[in-house]
Design a protein that fits this description.
The complex is a heterodimer.
Chain A (H helix, E strand, L loop, with lengths): L1 H27 L16 H10 L6 H13 L15 H5 L3 H28 L4 H15 L2 H15 L15 H27 L2 H9 L3 H17 L2 H19 L5 H10 L3 H29 L13
Chain B lengths: L2 H9 L13 H6 L7 H11 L1 H19 L41 H36 L1 H15 L3 H11 L4 H28 L2 H8 L4 H37 L11 H10 L8 H27 L7
Helix pairs in contact in B: 3-12, 4-5, 4-12, 5-6, 5-8, 5-10, 5-11, 7-8, 8-10, 10-11, 10-12, 11-12
Classes of the chains: A mainly alpha, B mainly alpha.
């Protein structure tokens, strides 16, 4: 167990280092006007060189990399260029962090609470109306581009349920639609896999034995099927973290929630290199940590799946 | 077996069945022959799935129309801006006889734009699916078959598998100049990984099976081993991955366009059209600009998703009985 955790930790660290390296190198290869705001057109060659030198961009590449890494470790991501000129990025991100964290966590919890009972229902009524309905929902959500789903939910549910279309901190009613949008994908995932694992389990021989013994079907369900089907469900947690991150970028921007996902879209549209760099790094670190935690959790839940290529559903 | 079924079977038993038959040489020879064909069987199972067949016909009709549409008479240009006699742009004209699905906010014909956009998105989707399949199968085969490369590819895979796909997509699309080539390239960077892993797992399972060992001992050429022993077992996975890749590529194109990293506005694509429609969706009279592109997009992606899954079931020999 400890050996596996350490190995997996090492893997995550290597990934993180590779990622930092890629981000660092790629951003240095971008055209130099990306380092200036509006004033770039009016500057002459000498001024540009002077400014670049002052920013440390003419130093040897290794020295730059050292500076970059030590900056990150101290929580210093540089300053924004076009989004809010000369403001430290850490300051821009800090007030937005809680929104993203709360919305992400809430959406994962909601999708667990809805998705798993839905999967159980589908397995219990296999081949009948609830199963058909649920399967239709899963196909619809997984096949239609999430962007299109979100737009239509925003457009029609808001007028149907008389809910506000955009996010407003003071109105709790305006939190419902974004949370729903962020959860639909995960709900479909949980329901689909829960149903599949339960159906697999129901076809096992020991269930036939339990039925032959005369156990009631409720206690077969709760004591055998559910328990065994829950174990592989642990694999889905990492996937759902990734899905939530992707969803948050889109949903936050669509509902104008002042979180990090919406900020990333704004930063991309304004071509603010350091801000994009910092946000990409944060998002992927969250992803890497989430995957690590999920894999370790899975190894605790079921010691058999300690293989190198675990996570079949990812 | 229920008693009714047993009774039914018993009815057909009579003394006639227990008499000796004269030896017939031809009939004796016939016993060893079976006209089993893998593809025939797969197709037979696939056609039994009515919903999948429905979507297949629908998709076929949609796609053939998409590529035939520009050659039909009376079609408008997808990027031309139409003006009235006074030289003003024909903006936001509702669907009617002149413009079948209306015009957008700068006076372009929505009907022509939708089919042109479908062509662009389909080209992106198919290119991504094809590239993913080729790269995935090649790397997966090397990963599973060449033992010296196994360690190396495993480590590379583990590093990149941990980074969320969307982040790689955003990062690379941000670096490069927007265009069809960029979009295809960025989606291929991560898309091959699931295919490669499935192919590798399958090859490791099949490579040491008895039937494959027997073929190798009998001196079957490698090309024949690949085409006869390995590929039929991989086809289901490859096809399913490819059709899901098309669904995903079209979805990612919409996503990238929304965050401002998609195709330039001058190239109509389903992502661009949905995005243009989203901008004007607040006024109900202009909502057709969002609904029609979204409808076509959803029909295509749902079709590919359903067909891919159904084909994967059908091509699994376990379901052929």
């Amino acid at each position: 167990m400890i050996k596996y955790t350490l190995k997996r930790l090492l893997q995550s660290v290597v990934t993180l280092v590779v990622l930092v390296l890629i981000i660092f190198l790629m951003m240095r290869l971008m055209p130099e006007e990306g380092y200036f705001g509006e004033g770039y057109i009016r500057m002459d060659r000498v001024q540009i060189e002077a400014a670049l030198t002052q920013m440390g961009l003419r130093d040897p590449i290794l020295a730059q990399f050292y500076k970059y890494i030590s900056g990150i470790l101290h929580g210093d991501f540089g300053t924004s260029i076009t989004f809010r000129e000369k403001v430290p990025i850490a300051e821009i991100i800090k007030p937005r962090l809680p929104y993203s964290i709360y919305f992400g966590l809430a959406s994962i919890i909601i999708s667990l609470l809805i998705g798993i009972p839905m999967g159980i229902m589908m397995a219990q009524f296999k081949g009948r109306a609830p199963d058909m309905l649920g399967s239709g929902y899963v196909v619809l959500v997984k096949a239609v581009a999430p962007a299109v789903c979100y737009i239509f939910l925003q457009l029609y549910l808001s007028s149907l349920l008389k809910l506000p279309m955009l996010f407003n901190v003071r109105k709790p009613a305006s939190w419902i639609l974004p949370l729903l949008c962020m959860s639909i994908g995960n709900i479909a995932n949980y329901a689909m896999w829960m149903r599949r694992y339960m159906v697999d389990e129901l076809n096992r021989d020991y269930i036939k034995l339990a039925m032959a013994k005369g156990m009631s079907s409720t206690s077969i369900m709760t004591r055998h099927v559910l328990r065994n089907a829950f174990v592989p469900m642990a694999q889905l947690l990492p996937t759902s973290i990734l899905l939530t991150i992707t969803g948050s970028i889109y949903v936050e921007s669509l509902f104008s929630i002042p979180g990090m996902g919406g900020l990333l879209v704004l930063a991309i549209q304004r071509q603010d290199n350091p801000l994009v760099q910092a946000l990409v790094l944060i998002f992927s670190s969250v992803g890497i940590i989430g995957l690590f935690a999920g894999d370790v959790l899975m190894a605790i839940a079921d010691p058999r799946i300690k293989t190198e290529y675990s996570g079949g559903s990812r | 077996m229920t008693t009714e079924k047993m009774d039914k079977n018993c009815e057909n038993i009579n003394a006639e069945l227990f008499r000796f038959v004269k030896f017939d040489e031809l009939a004796g020879e016939r016993a060893g022959y079976s006209n089993y064909s893998y593809w025939h069987s797969t197709w037979r199972v696939f056609t039994k799935d009515r919903i999948a067949m429905l979507f297949l016909c629908l998709l076929f009709a949609l796609l053939s129309f998409t590529f035939v549409q520009p050659f039909l008479p009376g079609q408008k240009d997808a990027i031309k801006i139409y003006n009235d006699e006074m030289g003003r742009q024909l903006r936001n004209i509702p669907p009617g006889t002149e413009f079948w699905l209306g015009t957008n906010s700068i006076g372009q014909d929505l009907w022509a734009r939708i089919w042109s956009g479908t062509r662009t998105s389909m080209i992106i989707g198919m290119a991504v699916a094809l590239a993913n399949a080729v790269i995935g199968v090649l790397l997966g085969a090397m990963w599973g078959y060449v033992r010296r490369l196994e360690r190396l590819i495993t480590e590379i895979y583990n590093v990149f598998e941990n980074i969320p796909d969307t982040i790689i997509l955003i990062l690379v699309a941000y670096m490069l100049r927007p265009g069809i080539g960029t979009i295809i390239f960025t989606m291929c960077l991560t898309g091959w990984m699931p295919t490669a892993r499935y192919v590798r797992n399958m090859i490791i399972i099949i490579r040491d099976r008895e039937f494959n060992l027997a073929s190798r001992c009998l001196g079957t050429p490698t090309t024949r081993i690949i085409t006869r022993n390995l590929l039929p077992q991989l086809v289901s996975v490859i096809m399913m991955r490819a059709s899901l890749a098309i669904t995903m590529a079209i979805g990612y194109e919409v996503f990238l366009t929304y965050i401002g990293l998609g195709l330039p506005v001058s190239i109509p694509s389903l992502g661009n059209l949905v995005n243009e429609g989203r901008v004007v969706m607040m006024s109900p009279s202009l909502r057709y600009q969002l609904i029609y592109p979204a409808l076509i997009l959803s029909l295509i992606t749902i079709s590919f998703y359903v067909i891919g899954n159904s084909f994967a079931d059908a091509s699994d020999p376990k379901n052929h009985l």
